[in-house]
C-alpha cells in the first residue's frame, strides 16, 4: 500500500450520470476522501453497491467493486470481508435498497457486526424510477404512487440499528463535506459494522427534504453535550422526531467484530494445488 | 450376488429411530459388510411415523428393495406401514409391555418376538437404551456377532464416557440372550463378516467432504430439508482447513454472501433445495454476467411450493436449466451415486473457476439421506486436483490491460475465458456488475460490445464442451436393442434392476448421465436402439424432453441480441442469407 494515495485515485474515468446538484456527488467524495485518508488504496478496497441512483457509485469509483442486485449489497459485502479480512470493504446503497427491499439484511448485518462500512445515501425518495415514496419518505409526502402521502411512519434506520445491537451509528449530510468525510472516516476506523446514514438530497423529485431544509434543521451532535458512547443518549437522539441530527450517534467502544468473535482471519483466496493436507482424516471419520 | 438381508427400525419421530438405525448400519459396515440405508420420515419433530432401513450383503448394494426380513416395531403403525414389504417368515421385534403395543397383531405368517425392551434396558442402566436392547435381539435373529455392535456403540458413545458404553453393551446382550433363551427357533439368517474396511456416508456428507477437498473455504446457507446435512457436515470441519460457515438470514442473503466470498477469491458454495433455489435465482444472472465462479448445490425434494418436503423427486431440472430472466450460461452437474457426489463436487469447483460461471451441483433427497458403504480408497485425496483457471497476479496482469491502463476482467478472448484478478492484486481494481459491460467491467449499452460480451460468455460453454469429458456411465449389455437412459440418483436401482432383468433373459443397455448441461450427445445411441426409455423421478419427463430435443432435426436460426428490435429490411436480408447458406450446405 503506497502512502501517497490521493482521493482522486478512487475516481473512475466514468462521468457520473447523476442529476447536476445531486447529493450523491458529495456523498461519494466523502467516501473517497475517507478511504484515502485512512490509508487505503483502490487495489485493497472493495466497494459493493446496490441498485438505484446510489447503486451507480461503484461505477464512478475506482476500486475492486461489485454492483449487485437490488437490496443484497450487505450480504455481498459480508462475503467479501469474511473471505478477505485483509481487504477494506465499503457497502453503499440508497434508502430503498437498504430499508425496503434489503431491510431484512440490514438488521442481520448489524447483528453480525462484520468489520465494514455501510453508507446509505438517503434522499427519502425513489429517484431513478422517477419519484415514488421511499421507506424514509414522510407520512404526508405526495408522490405519483402515494397521491395522499404514504400514510405510514417512515422507517427510523437508526432505531432499527440500535435495536439490532449496532456498535456504530452515525448520520451525516452530503453537503457538509468536512463533517461528512470525518464521520465516514470514523465509521471506517470503527472496529465492527460502521453504519452511516447520509442525507443526500434529490434535487429533481424531492422538494421537501432539500439542501435548505437540512441546512436549516440539522443539529451537529459534536457541538452538543451528546455522549456517543452512552446508549441512553443515543436512544434520546434517535427517538427525537422533532430534530434532524448529524454526527456519531452511538459507538460501542468495546465492539468485538465478527472476525474476532469467530476466528475468521485467513485470506481464503490462497489454496494448495490439491486437497488440503490431512484431508484423509475426513474419510477416516466415516469408519 | 450373495443373499441380502433387509432390516428396519420404526416408530415415532423422537423415538431415536435415526440413531438406532445408524448404529446398526455402522456395526454392519465395521463387520466388513456392504450397507445401503434409507429413511422414511416426515416433516415433524415428534410423533407420526419414521423408519430407518438397512439393506446389507457381502456384495455391493446400491438400492433399496421391497422386502423386509427383520423389523423392530416401536409402534403398531410401523407394522402397518410396512405390510407390503414384510413377507412370510419376517421377524417383528416389539415390546408387548409398551401400552400401545399390548394389543398389536402380528400377521399369521410372520414371527413376532415379544421382547420386554424397556424393562431389560432399565435393568442395564436406563430405559433410554431400549432400542439398543432391540438391536441385541436383532443380532441374535440374524446370527450377527454382537462384538460388531460393540464397536459401533463405542464410536457412538465414547465421548460420553466408558460407563455409558458399557451399559449399552450390556443392554444389547440382554436383548440377545432374551431371544436366545425365550425363543427356541432357528432363523435362516447368517450375517457373515469379512475383513474389508468400509466407510459409511450419505450424499450430503460426500458433497461436504468433496467441498473441503476441493478447497471450498466459504459456505453460506439457510437450513432446509434435505440440504441441511451439507451445512451441518461443514460446520466444525471446514474451520480446520481455514474456512468458515455462515447461517444466513435467508437464501437471498446466502447466495449473495457466497458471491461476495467468490469475488474475494475464495472457493465458495451454498446448498439448498427447490424453495431456496427459487429465491437464489434472483442472483443467478448476476453471477453469470459478472463471471463469478460459484457452486450452488440443489438437493432436490418433492415440489412445487412446499410440496412433500421429506419425499424424493427430481423435478427441478428445468428450473436449474432455464431459471432466471435473460439468457444465463451455467453448468448443471448431477452425480449419479453417493461416491460421485464427492467427485462431482470437486469437479464442480474446478469447472466453476475454469469457466468463471455458476455451476449447479444437484443431488436429490434419496441420495442425500441415504448412506452407503465404500472402500476408503474411493475417496483418495491424492487424486484431487485443483484448477483455478485464468487467475492473474502482479507479474501477469500487464498482459490484460486496456489501452487506457485498466484491467480487463471481461477481456474478449478466443476461448471466451477472461483473466481473473483477486482483490489485493496491484493494478487489478475493477468493477463487476449485472449490467452489460465492456471489457473493463464498465456499464455499456453499445450494441457491438453487447454482442461481443454475450458471444464471449456463450463461447465459454462451447470451449467447455470441447475441453471437458461429458461422457455418461454405461453398463448392462452394450449390444442390447433396448436403451435405458437415466440421470441423478436412479443409477443404483437401475444397476440392480438390470441384473433382475438379465436373469429373466431381458437385456438392456444403460446410460447414466451425470451431466445435464453441457451433456453428452446421445443421438447416435438413441438411433442405434430399437427402444429408448428414460427413467427419472418426476411426472413430466424433463430429461426425456432433453433427449428428444437433442435427437430432433436442427433448424436454422436468426437471432438478435444487441438490444435493438428486428427491422423489416434487415430481417429480409437475414432470411435471404440463411437460405443461401442452406443451399450451399
Automatic annotation (TrEMBL), chain A:
Coiled-coil residue windows: none
Keyword set includes Cell cycle: no
Any GO MF annotation of the entry: iron-sulfur cluster binding
Residues covered by the Thiamine pyrophosphate enzyme TPP-binding domain: 51-198
Chain residue ranges for the region called Disordered: 130-156
Ranges of residues in domain Pyruvate ferredoxin oxidoreductase beta subunit C-terminal: 202-263
Keywords (A to Z) from UniProt: Iron, Iron-sulfur, Magnesium, Metal-binding, Oxidoreductase, Thiamine pyrophosphate
Alphabetical list of InterPro entries matching this protein: 2-oxoacid:Fd_oxidoreductase, OFOB, PFO_beta_C, THDP-binding, TPP_enzyme_TPP-bd
Pfam family, one: TPP_enzyme_C
Any single GO BP term: cellular respiration
UniProt keyword annotation of Iron present: yes
Cofactor or coenzyme needed: [4Fe-4S] cluster; thiamine diphosphate; Mg(2+)
PANTHER family found in the cross-reference section: 2-OXOGLUTARATE OXIDOREDUCTASE SUBUNIT KORB (PTHR48084:SF4), 2-OXOGLUTARATE OXIDOREDUCTASE SUBUNIT KORB-RELATED (PTHR48084)
UniProt-recorded name of the protein: 2-oxoglutarate ferredoxin oxidoreductase subunit beta
TrEMBL record, chain B:
EC id: 1.2.7.3
Pfam families hit by this protein: POR, POR_N
Residues covered by the Pyruvate flavodoxin/ferredoxin oxidoreductase pyrimidine binding domain: 210-455
Region: Disordered, residue numbers: 425-447
GO biological process: organic acid metabolic process; response to oxidative stress; sulfur compound biosynthetic process
CDD domains: TPP_PYR_PFOR_IOR-alpha_like
Keyword field: Oxidoreductase, Pyruvate
Compositional bias of kind Basic and acidic residues: 435-447
SUPFAM superfamilies from the UniProt entry: Pyruvate-ferredoxin oxidoreductase, PFOR, domain III, Thiamin diphosphate-binding fold (THDP-binding), TK C-terminal domain-like
Keyword flag Secreted: no
Source domain of life: Archaea
Subunit structure: Heterotetramer of the KorA, KorB, KorC and KorD subunits.
InterPro entries given in the database record: 2-oxoacid/accept_OxRdtase_asu, Pyruvate:ferred/Flavod_OxRd, Pyrv/ketoisovalerate_OxRed_cat, Pyrv_Fd/Flavodoxin_OxRdtase_N, Pyrv_flavodox_OxRed_cen, THDP-binding, Transketo_C/PFOR_II
Protein name per the record: 2-oxoglutarate synthase subunit KorA
Gene3D superfamilies: 3.40.50.920, 3.40.50.970, Pyruvate-ferredoxin oxidoreductase, PFOR, domain III
Extent of the signal sequence: none
Transmembrane segments: none
Pyruvate/ketoisovalerate oxidoreductase catalytic domain ranges (all copies): 13-175
A GO MF label: 2-oxoglutarate synthase activity
Reaction(s) this enzyme catalyzes, per UniProt: 2 oxidized [2Fe-2S]-[ferredoxin] + 2-oxoglutarate + CoA = succinyl-CoA + 2 reduced [2Fe-2S]-[ferredoxin] + CO2 + H(+)
Native organism: Halorubrum tebenquichense DSM 14210
Amino acid at each position: 500500500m503506497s502512502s501517497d494515495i490521493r482521493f482522486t485515485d478512487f475516481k473512475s474515468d466514468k462521468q457520473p450520470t447523476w442529476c447536476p446538484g445531486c447529493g450523491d456527488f458529495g456523498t461519494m467524495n466523502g467516501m473517497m476522501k475517507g478511504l484515502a485518508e485512512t490509508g487505503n488504496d483502490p487495489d485493497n478496497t472493495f466497494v459493493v453497491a446496490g441498485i438505484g441512483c446510489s447503486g451507480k457509485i461503484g461505477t464512478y469509483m475506482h476500486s475492486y467493486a461489485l454492483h449487485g442486485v437490488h437490496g443484497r449489497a450487505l450480504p455481498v459485502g459480508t462475503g467479501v470481508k469474511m473471505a478477505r479480512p485483509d481487504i477494506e470493504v465499503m457497502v453503499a446503497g440508497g434508502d430503498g435498497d437498504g430499508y425496503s427491499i434489503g431491510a431484512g439484511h440490514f438488521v442481520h448485518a448489524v447483528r453480525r457486526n462484520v468489520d465494514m462500512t455501510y453508507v446509505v445515501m438517503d434522499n427519502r425518495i425513489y429517484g431513478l424510477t422517477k419519484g415514488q415514496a421511499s421507506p424514509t419518505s414522510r407520512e404526508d409526502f405526495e408522490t405519483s404512487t402515494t397521491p395522499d402521502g404514504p400514510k405510514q411512519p417512515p422507517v427510523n434506520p437508526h432505531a432499527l440499528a440500535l435495536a439490532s445491537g449496532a456498535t456504530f451509528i452515525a448520520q451525516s449530510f452530503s453537503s457538509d463535506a468536512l463533517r461528512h468525510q470525518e464521520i465516514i472516516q470514523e465509521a471506517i476506523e470503527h472496529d465492527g459494522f460502521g453504519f452511516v446514514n447520509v442525507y443526500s438530497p434529490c434535487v429533481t423529485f424531492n422538494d421537501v427534504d432539500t439542501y435548505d431544509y437540512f441546512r436549516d434543521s440539522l443539529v451537529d451532535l459534536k457541538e452538543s453535550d451528546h455522549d456517543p458512547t452512552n446508549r441512553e443518549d443515543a436512544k434520546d437522539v434517535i427517538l427525537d422526531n422533532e430534530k434532524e441530527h448529524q454526527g456519531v450517534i452511538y459507538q460501542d467502544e468495546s465492539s468485538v467484530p465478527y472476525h474476532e468473535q469467530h476466528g475468521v482471519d485467513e485470506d481464503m483466496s490462497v489454496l494448495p494445488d490439491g486437497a488440503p493436507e490431512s484431508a484423509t482424516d475426513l474419510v477416516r471419520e466415516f469408519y | 450376488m450373495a443373499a441380502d438381508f433387509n432390516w428396519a427400525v420404526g416408530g415415532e419421530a423422537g423415538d431415536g429411530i435415526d440413531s438406532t438405525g445408524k448404529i446398526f448400519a455402522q456395526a454392519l459396515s465395521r463387520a466388513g459388510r456392504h450397507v445401503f440405508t434409507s429413511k422414511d420420515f416426515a416433516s415433524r419433530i415428534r410423533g407420526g411415523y419414521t423408519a430407518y432401513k438397512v439393506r446389507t450383503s457381502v456384495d455391493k448394494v446400491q438400492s433399496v428393495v421391497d422386502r423386509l426380513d427383520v423389523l423392530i416395531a416401536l409402534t403398531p403403525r410401523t407394522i402397518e406401514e410396512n405390510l407390503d414389504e414384510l413377507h412370510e417368515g419376517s421377524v417383528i421385534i416389539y415390546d408387548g409391555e409398551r401400552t400401545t403395543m399390548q394389543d398389536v397383531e402380528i400377521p399369521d405368517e410372520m414371527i413376532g418376538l415379544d421382547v420386554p425392551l424397556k424393562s431389560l434396558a432399565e435393568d442395564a442402566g436406563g430405559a433410554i437404551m431400549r432400542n439398543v436392547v432391540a438391536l441385541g435381539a436383532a443380532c441374535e435373529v440374524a446370527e450377527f456377532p454382537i462384538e460388531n455392535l460393540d464397536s459401533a456403540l463405542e464410536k457412538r458413545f465414547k465421548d460420553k464416557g466408558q460407563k455409558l458404553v458399557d451399559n449399552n453393551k450390556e443392554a444389547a446382550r440382554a436383548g440377545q440372550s432374551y431371544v436366545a433363551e425365550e425363543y427356541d427357533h432357528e432363523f435362516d439368517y447368517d450375517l457373515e463378516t469379512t475383513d474389508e474396511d468400509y466407510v459409511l456416508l450419505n450424499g450430503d456428507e460426500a458433497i461436504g467432504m468433496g467441498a473441503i477437498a476441493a478447497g471450498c473455504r466459504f459456505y453460506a446457507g439457510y437450513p432446509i430439508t434435505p440440504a441441511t446435512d451439507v451445512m451441518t457436515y461443514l460446520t466444525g470441519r471446514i474451520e480446520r482447513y481455514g474456512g468458515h460457515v455462515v447461517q444466513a438470514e435467508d437464501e437471498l442473503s446466502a447466495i449473495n454472501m457466497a458471491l461476495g466470498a467468490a469475488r474475494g477469491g475464495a472457493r465458495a458454495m451454498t446448498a439448498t433445495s427447490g424453495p431456496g433455489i427459487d429465491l437464489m435465482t434472483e442472483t443467478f444472472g448476476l453471477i453469470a454476467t459478472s463471471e463469478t465462479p460459484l457452486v450452488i448445490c440443489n438437493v432436490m425434494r418433492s415440489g412445487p411450493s412446499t410440496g412433500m418436503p421429506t419425499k424424493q423427486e427430481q423435478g427441478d431440472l428445468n428450473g436449474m436449466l432455464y431459471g432466471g430472466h435473460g439468457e444465463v450460461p451455467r453448468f448443471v452437474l448431477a452425480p449419479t451415486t453417493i461416491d460421485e457426489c464427492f467427485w462431482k463436487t470437486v469437479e464442480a469447483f474446478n469447472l466453476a473457476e475454469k469457466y468463471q460461471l455458476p455451476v449447479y451441483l444437484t443431488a436429490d433427497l434419496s441420495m442425500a439421506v441415504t448412506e452407503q458403504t465404500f472402500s476408503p480408497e474411493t475417496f483418495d485425496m491424492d487424486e484431487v486436483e485443483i484448477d483455478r483457471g485464468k487467475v492473474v497476479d502482479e507479474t501477469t496482469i500487464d498482459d490484460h490491460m486496456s489501452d487506457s491502463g485498466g484491467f480487463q476482467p471481461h477481456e474478449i478472448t478466443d476461448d471466451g475465458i477472461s483473466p481473473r484478478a483477486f482483490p489485493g492484486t496491484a493494478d487489478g481494481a475493477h468493477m463487476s456488475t449485472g449490467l452489460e459491460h465492456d471489457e473493463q467491467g464498465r456499464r455499456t449499452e453499445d450494441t457491438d460490445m453487447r454482442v461481443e460480451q454475450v458471444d464471449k460468455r456463450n463461447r465459454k460453454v462451447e470451449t467447455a464442451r470441447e475441453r471437458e469429458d461429458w461422457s455418461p456411465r454405461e453398463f448392462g449389455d452394450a449390444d442390447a436393442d433396448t436403451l435405458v437412459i437415466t440421470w441423478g440418483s436412479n443409477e443404483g436401482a437401475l444397476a440392480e434392476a438390470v441384473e433382475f432383468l438379465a436373469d429373466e433373459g431381458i437385456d438392456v443397455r444403460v446410460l447414466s448421465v451425470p451431466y445435464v448441461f453441457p451433456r453428452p450427445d446421445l443421438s447416435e445411441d438413441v438411433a442405434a436402439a430399437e427402444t429408448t426409455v428414460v427413467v427419472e423421478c418426476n411426472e413430466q419427463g424433463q430429461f426425456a424432453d432433453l433427449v428428444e430435443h437433442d435427437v430432433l432435426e436442427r433448424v436454422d436460426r436468426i437471432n438478435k441480441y444487441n438490444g435493438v428490435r428486428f427491422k423489416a429490411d434487415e430481417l429480409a436480408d437475414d432470411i435471404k442469407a440463411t437460405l443461401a447458406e442452406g443451399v450451399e450446405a
